[in-house]
Amino acid sequence: MTTKILEVNDLRVHFRLGGFWGKRAVIRAVDGISFFVNEGETLGVAGETGSGKSTIAKVLVGLYKPTSGTVKLMGEVINFRDGNSVAKLRENVGIVFQDPTSSLNPRLKVREIIREALVAAGVERSLHEERIRHIVPLVGLRPSVLDAYPRQLSGGEKQRVSLARALVVPKKLLILDEPTSSLDVSVQAQVLNTLKELKKELKLSYLFISHDLNVLKYMSTRILVLFYGKMVEIGSARKIVTEPKHPYTQELVSNLLDSPQPLSERLVMEHQPSFTGCVYSRICPFVMEECRTTHPPFYKVSDDQFVACHLFKKFPKAFDF
Ligand SMILES: Nc1ncnc2c1ncn2[C@@H]1O[C@H](COP(=O)(O)OP(=O)(O)OP(=O)(O)O)[C@@H](O)[C@H]1O
Ligand SMILES: [Mg+2]
């Protein structure tokens, strides 16, 4: 039986910004997202800039509080108002950010950077060196880097240090927020392969966020597609890439096939969302009247593909995807 490590239900994260004359703007960064991550799987998250990918990641490591919705970790609901409950989230969920240069303290040697995670988790000092020496080769680093400062390392090595810091205290779920987009293509491939090996070796599950559908296809079991805070499609990586159903996913995939420029540049498309009806209705080539008034529910197109689009309303409505 598959075990769900993480279950997210109707998650909303709205930011209220100060405004003029008493009017306050609200950014609906994440607006009604539901998904789960099975033990041992990689759920890919795709979406252009500003679609809410990092906001979801930050909720899942306790950096942001949700406006509403629930997050369950290994079957237990996380109470974001309770420090102990959030501590449980942080204990079990690790994160690696896009830019290793800004996330590593330049004044500390690598050994101390990794040690900080052990100190934060309250691991006894006498165990630190053994834990550090165990994780370093697993992430593909030589032990000599422990005495180096981040500036003496390459981009790929720095990202491996971020991985070591995230995993030196064992985790159930690792969130990778664009972990290779700042790296050269050849280094990117090596780090992706290390991530695949680590997942097996440490029995991890991944939530893998990327602009790059090629990377997501290579890494993911399933892929979730976001558009301005809304989920528009979710399904097996193969279905999403070879038979995309939502007009937005189709656009992403056709860009992947047609354009010679790197996808990471192409996906920064910055479309205008619609604030009424379907979030994609303003630009959708297949827009119908109801798209302008109601955001569609999810329809089950097949056992491993679900799409939020009125074009698919002849299929059954789906609640568990
Ligand atoms: N702390 C915050 N306060 C106000 N607005 C925020 C905050 N954090 C994120 N946002 C807004 O929420 C939206 C989603 O941002 P988010 O960083 O999650 O997008 P993203 O999909 O990760 O984008 P990128 O691909 O550029 O990393 C954006 O409009 C962003 O400006
Ligand atoms: Mg982001």
TrEMBL record:
Pfam families recorded: ABC_tran, oligo_HPY
Keywords, sorted A to Z: ATP-binding, Nucleotide-binding, Transport
GO MF terms held by the record: ATP binding; ATP hydrolysis activity
GO terms under biological process: peptide transport; transmembrane transport
Segment forming the signal sequence: none
Domain of life: Archaea
Residue span(s) of domain ABC transporter: 6-253
NCBIfam families membership: oligo_HPY
UniProt record similarity statement: Belongs to the ABC transporter superfamily.
Protein name: ABC transporter domain-containing protein
UniProt organism field: Candidatus Marsarchaeota G1 archaeon OSP_D
